[in-house]
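Ligand-bound model needed. phosphoenolpyruvate.
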Amino acid sequence: MKIIAGNWKMNGSRDTLQNMALALKDVKTDNKVILCVPYTMLCVNAINFSLGAQDVSTHDKGAYTGEVSASMIAETGAKYVIVGHSERRQYHEETNSIVRQKASNALNAGLIPIICVGETMEEKQAGKTMAVIESGVRESVPNDAGKVIVAYEPRWAIGAGLTPTETEILGAHKLIADTLSSMGLSGTPILYGASVKASNAADIMSIQFVDGVLVGGASLKSDDFIPIITSVK
Ligand code: PEP
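Prediction:
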C-alpha cells in the first residue's frame, strides 16, 4: 500500500473537487489517497479518499485574523494537514521551529501532519543537501510525535519538471528513515514530492524507503491523477 497525496495549492473550486470526487469513487486501489485542498473546499463529501488542508496556524485561537487553527480544520472532517511546504517556507519565511509548532498543533487536534523538508537549489549547489534534510527532520518533526508523515520535496524540483536521480532520492529517503528511527519514529511513512507524474510515479515509488508521493500539478485533473494512483499496487 502506498500513500498518494495531492496538493491543490490555491487552485480548483468546490465544483472541480466534486468532479474529482466522482472520478475517484470508481477507482479500484488499495493505496491511500489524500487530497490537500484550500480550506473552503474541506467540507466536500470525500468517498474513497481523505481530505487535508495545506497549512495551519501556530496558534490555538484568538486575535489572529485570517488564521485557521488545527481544531477548526479537524472540525471539517479533514484528517491531514501539510506543514512546512516549500512555498510556505519561501513566501512566508517559515522556519523549522515554526513548522514543528504547526505539526504539534495538528497532532493535538487529532490531525496527521504531512511535514515537508527539502533543499533549495542554492543549498544543493553548496553541497548542503543532506545537512538540510537531516536538520529539517530533527527540527520540524515534534520530538513526541504521534503519527506523522514526512515528505521529501527537493525545493528546486517542485513545479519545474525536474527530478533528482534515483540514487539521490534513495539517499535522501534513507537519511530521513535513519533520522526518524534515531528519534524513535521508525515506520513513519516518507513521501517523495516534486514533479511527480504518471510517467515517473511507478519508478519513483519502487525506490526503497519511498512510501508514496506528494503530487502538485498532476493532482488537479483526474486524467493525470488517477493513473498515478493506479500506477502501483
Ligand atoms: C508540491 O507542490 O508539493 C509539488 C510536489 O508540486 P509539483 O508536483 O507540481 O512539482
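The mean pLDDT is 96.
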